[in-house]
Design brief:
By secondary structure, the chain is mainly α. 33% of the residues lie in helices and 0% in strands. The chain has one domain (15-49). It comes from Brevibacterium rongguiense.
């Protein structure tokens, strides 16, 4: 058994709840993060997302 599993309080994996990215290639960046990490944008604005 790994050392982590033998602990009473194993380490939990963090979860994304909010993040911000800056880019001049928004459509490409959104497609990348959707494909790689399963992230989805929740807001698009005219002056920023």
């Amino acid at each position: 058994m790994s050392e982590n599993r033998s602990r009473r309080n194993p380490i939990t994996r963090p979860v994304f709840h909010h993040t911000t990215f800056a880019t001049n290639r928004l459509d490409e960046m959104v497609a990348f993060y959707e494909a790689i990490a399963g992230l989805e944008p929740v807001f698009y604005g005219d002056e920023g997302a």
